[in-house]
Structure formats: C-alpha cells, structure tokens
Specification:
CATH architecture of the largest domain: 3-Layer(aba) Sandwich
CATH topology of the largest domain: D-Maltodextrin-Binding Protein, domain 2
Structural class: alpha+beta
CATH superfamily of the largest domain: Periplasmic binding protein-like II
Distance between the termini: 23 Å
Order of helices and strands: EHEHEHHEEEEHEEHEEHHHEEEHHEHHHH
Length: 473
C-alpha cells in the first residue's frame, strides 16, 4: 500500500528505462565524493513503490536527476518510473533477472516491507562519511533502526495523521469544531465530554444527512438516500483502521503467529457498524461512485470528517469531473480522538532506501544524501511531505499556507507526531504482499456486505492469516 499520494485520475503511460547493473570503479574521498578515475558509475533509481508516478510529478523528478548529474560527473543517475500499480511486479522481475535497482523510493514502510530484509544497513556508510544525524527530528532516525537489520533508512518525509473536517458543515449543524489541541475536552450540548471515538461517532451521526435534511440520529432518517456522510476512514486499510484505536500488529512477537489485537477488532466493528447500523460511513459502492468522489470521498464535498495523513493536502479540495476546484476551501485540522486512555495518530514516513546487494554502496549513498539534502525541499514540496529535518519544517508549512489560504491550523500536524503508532501499522508480517492482499479483500468485504457476524468473521480472518504465514515458512 502506498503511504503517500493516492491513486488519482486515469492511468498513464509508464516510463521504463530498463538497464543492467553496470560498473566502472571509482575511488572515494574521505567525505564520499567520487574522484576522477575517468570511470562513470551508473546508479539506478527505481520509482514508484510509493508516490512519484503522477505525470505532474515526473518533470520535477527528472530535473532533480539532471541537477545531480551536472554536479557529480563521476556518477550517472538514471531514473526509472513505473506506475504504482505495476511497480511491485516490475521490481520483482528486475531482481529475479539480476538487475535490481540501487536506490528505491520514495516509499513508506509498507512498500519497503514488500521486500523485507533486502535493504542495506547504512551504519558503516554514515560513520565513514561523517553524516550528521542530529539534523533530523528526535526519534525519526530510530524509526529506521530495525532489530536484526540495522539502520536501513534515513528520515526524509513524515506524515502524521489528523482529523480533517469541514468548518461549514459543523456551523450548519450548530456544532462546535472538534478540538485542535490534544487532551482538550469537546463541548457537546453544553457539556464537556472526552474527545474520543464515542464522541466522534456521535458527531458523525449528527453530520450525516439524508435528502430531506434529517440526520442519522432522527427517527425520520432515510439511510437509502444520504446526501452527506459524517465520517470517512480516508485511504485506510484494516491495519490503519485498527491503529487509530491502538498501535499493534497482525503478527505476534515470534514473527510467525497470526493475531488480531483486541483494539483492532473493536475498531473494525466500529467501522462496520458505522456503515451498516449507524450509517455515518458510506458503503463501498457509494465510496466509488462519481457523486461521492470516485474513491476519494472526502474530496467530494459530501463528507464532514476524515482521518488521514498530511500527504492528503495533495487531494483534499473539492473538484468537478474535469478536476477543477469548486468553491473556496474551508477545511481545517483537528486532533485525533482517543480510544479509552490512548491516543494514536498513526504515522506514515517515506524515504529512499539502498538495495542491500548494490555493487556501488558509496555512490548510492552519495545519491541518497543528495535526495535527502540538496534536493529535499524540491521533492518534499512535490510529495507533500513534512520534512524530517527540523530546520526545514517552518518553511514547509509556510509553503502550504500559500496553497491553502483558509488559515489551516498546521500546529495540529506538528503536535500529532508525538502520538505516532509504535510499532508501525505497516510493519512486518510473513508473506507481506499476500497478507496485504488479504487485508484489502477483508476491508472490501466489511464495506460491501451487510449482515456479517463480526466476531465469527474476525476469527476466520485470523485463521486465514495463519494459513498465509504458515505457507511462508
């Protein structure tokens, strides 16, 4: 699953520059710069197991490559862009053919875990190049220090999640806006209540409206003719849905036993009831209908609230069928509700990684640090990523203010980082790709099938996962 920009628009032609892992040698200075041997080392950058394949992004990515090559005469960086939906298969074919790329990205944990155990430990390169790790926000370097694998990445883009909400819909319903500050109470009907998933459900029902203007709390509400929904788990898979109730994993600590955390089961039931009982979440057919955004429900302008990540600033404005903005944006950000005594703002983080078997680790590291350094502001602006480098964050949000002029409270995004899920909901499971396919199919079943006994279904899903894990032994 991509953790950054979602699929948007029609399919487009794939740019594929297939090349062999090729050589030449070069000596390195103590700082890592290639020195003049006359040889040019070719480094293969593979995109896109995450974002980066959108036609509007590609010219900027190609310009980054041109700029790198102009300033590094002993390295030739070659970019391969493969459509996200085809990228896993395309990269698998290249690996099987002995033509694995040197650098892959940007991608999140999920994209990387599809090739678990295949990423270079950067520890020695960081030390030999005296690379400064203190430039990054606290904890972001440790995020990529994985037991048994080493320092398999460096921070680039971080994407905390928040509650997106439509100010106008709250005003029309006579409701206070949701809290922007973590730990604050919510004022509902003149009483302070906890800002938690129960309160989110209540608000979502009041903000779900049928064609006659009745909300989902009314005895006259018509669930067959809803024109506005109160909530959408925007671009969330089952793991993400669960993680907002508590961080966890679908595999036990032994790495082989399937498990469903209790909080995840509760979250899945909460969403299922939201679709079929309380009617504040649309079913799958409506989710993919043109009038509700063709798979991007919140953007349709018919959804009051959505939990999703900072990268969604790419695609949050309401648009017509031609992709043109409709009206002035008036959305804002609020804190993620708690579940019980726990608040979890699940976390996406994208970066570039070096293939473990690269023939050119030093030159690949030079490219990596360029993408994370000189090119980072350009690429972060392109991908909508909050910089992991602390010094760049204020400018990043200033740039977002230029795009979104309705005075968004970006402090919510900054505050959400401290509530990141650990372990990551996208973390390791056996047979990662097969497991992910099962996750997608199961959520589709939840949102398309009324009348499921959820306790029985969750037990069957756990058994299915165990079969997948056992088959990977």
């Amino acid at each position: 699953m991509r953790s950054t920009l979602p699929r948007a628009g029609a399919a487009f032609a794939t740019l594929v520059l297939l090349l062999a892992a090729c050589g030449g040698t070069s000596s390195q200075s103590p700082g890592g710069a290639s020195q003049g041997t006359g040889e040019v080392v070719e480094i293969h950058w593979f995109c896109c197991l995450g974002t980066g394949d959108d036609p509007q992004q590609q010219p900027t990515e190609k310009k980054v490559v041109e700029d790198f090559n102009a300033s590094h005469p002993n390295i030739k960086l070659v970019l391969e862009i493969v459509d996200y939906d085809s990228a896993f298969d395309a990269m698998s074919v290249e690996i099987a053919g002995g033509n694995a790329p040197d650098i892959v990205g940007p991608m999140g944990v999920s994209g990387a875990e599809a090739f678990h155990g295949k990423w270079l430990d950067l520890t020695d390169l960081i030390e030999s190049n005296s690379y400064d790790l203190t430039q990054f926000t606290q904890g972001s370097v440790e995020f990529y220090n994985v037991g048994g694998e080493g320092q398999i990445g460096l921070p680039f883009a971080i994407y905390p999640s928040m509650l997106y909400y439509q100010r106008d819909m709250f005003e029309e319903a006579g409701l206070e806006p949701p809290p922007h500050t973590y730990g604050e109470k919510y004022m509902l009907d003149g009483q302070e209540v906890d800002w938690d998933m129960d309160t989110l459900r209540e608000l979502a029902m009041r903000l779900t409206v049928d064609k006659n203007g009745n909300d989902a709390t009314s005895a006259d509400f018509d669930p067959a003719n809803i024109v506005q929904f109160g909530y959408e788990p925007q671009y969330q898979d089952l793991r993400a849905v669960g993680s907002y109730f508590h961080s966890g994993s679908l595999v036990a600590d032994d790495g082989t036993t399937a498990q469903i955390p209790d909080e995840w089961a509760a979250a899945w039931k909460w969403v299922y009831d939201g679709v079929w009982k309380d009617h504040f979440i649309m079913n799958e057919a409506l989710e993919n209908a043109p009038e509700f955004g063709n798979g991007n429900p919140y953007q349709s302008g018919h959804v009051a609230m959505a939990l999703t990540h900072l990268w969604y600033t790419c695609c949050v404005s309401q648009q017509d069928d031609a992709g043109n903005p409709i009206g002035e944006p008036n959305w804002d950000l609020a804190a993620v509700p708690a579940y019980g005594d726990t608040t979890t703002s699940n976390f996406n983080a994208d970066t570039f990684r070096i293939w473990a078997d690269t023939k050119h680790p030093q030159q690949s590291f030079e490219v990596l640090t360029y993408l994370l350094g000189d090119a980072s502001q350009t690429l972060l602006g392109l991908y909508g990523g909050m910089p992991a480098r602390s010094a760049d964050q204020d400018q990043f949000f200033t740039n977002l203010d230029d795009k979104w002029t309705q005075d968004v409270d970006w402090q919510v995004a900054k505050d959400s980082v401290q509530y990141a899920d650990n372990p990551s909901f996208e973390g390791y499971t056996p047979a990662y790709q097969e497991t992910f396919d099962a996750i997608v199919a199961e959520l589709s079943k939840f949102r398309s099938t009324e009348g499921i006994n959820m306790d029985d279904e969750i037990a069957k899903f756990k058994d299915q996962l165990q079969e997948i894990y056992d088959g990977a032994q």
